[in-house]
Amino acid sequence: MERVLVLGITGAGKSTLARALGRRLGLPFHELDVLHFAGPRWQVSATFAEDTARIAAGERWLLDGQGPEAVRDLMWERADAVVWLDFPRRVVMLRVLRRSLRRSLLRERLFGGNRERWREWLRGDHPVWWAWSRHAERRAEIGRRATDPRFAPVRVVRLSSPREAEAWLNGRTGP
């Protein structure tokens, strides 16, 4: 495992698992949201696609997330492994609710200096609504890619629960 994507819906725990896996394997970790959101009011980076392509061209990396459609094929074509956090909606929703509540209450700074604000909870692109409304769609898309002949060389590790993910990660002793 030298070029790894960690995938799943918003709130599944991609960044947390990716950081731990990156440390375990000695891979440089790149958080896709940090690359994507460049500034205040959730501005998208003008160089996101180029930055992602530069990282994907490298020999060793770990990315958490699938990002916009413009970069998905590129990442899958370059990856040698995908770790898929395919958790049930109830698990994801509990996680994303807790995380968004904490971020809103504590006014945590996120990518590009942004914060989750209470008024954003009513928007369709807020992480809670996004996770709820896109869970089945994201799951189906990752499933299609996992069986797509174009990406046949990619090893897919599908983890169905946090307990399974933890056991898998703890069982990793190296590449």
Overview of the molecule:
This is Topology modulation protein. InterPro entries: Cytidylate_Kinase-2, P-loop_NTPase. The structure is a single chain. The chain is an alpha/beta fold and 175 residues long. It has one domain: Rossmann fold. The chain has helices at residues 14-25, 32-36, 48-57, 69-78, 89-106, 127-147, 162-171, and strands spanning 3-7, 29-31, 37-39, 43-44, 61-64, 81-85, 155-159. It has a five-stranded parallel beta sheet, sandwiched between helices. A hairpin with a 3-residue loop joins β3 and β4 (43-44). α3 (48-57) runs parallel beside α4 and α5 crosses α6.
Strand content: 15-25%
| SSE sequence, one letter per element | EHEHEEHEHEHHEH
> Architecture, CATH level 2?
3-Layer(aba) Sandwich
Distance between the termini: 5 Å
Structurally, how many domains make up the residues?
A: 1
Bulk shape: globular
Radius of gyration: 16 Å
Widest sheet: strand ordering? 2-5-1-6-7
Which residues form runs of ≥5 with pLDDT under 50? none
Biggest sheet overview:
5 strands, parallel
* Estimated helix fraction: 40-55%
Q: Can you tell me the CATH topology?
A: Rossmann fold
Number of strands: 7
| Fourth-level CATH superfamily | P-loop containing nucleotide triphosphate hydrolases
InterPro entries: Cytidylate_Kinase-2, P-loop_NTPase
Protein name: Topology modulation protein
Organism: Streptomyces lavendulae subsp. lavendulae
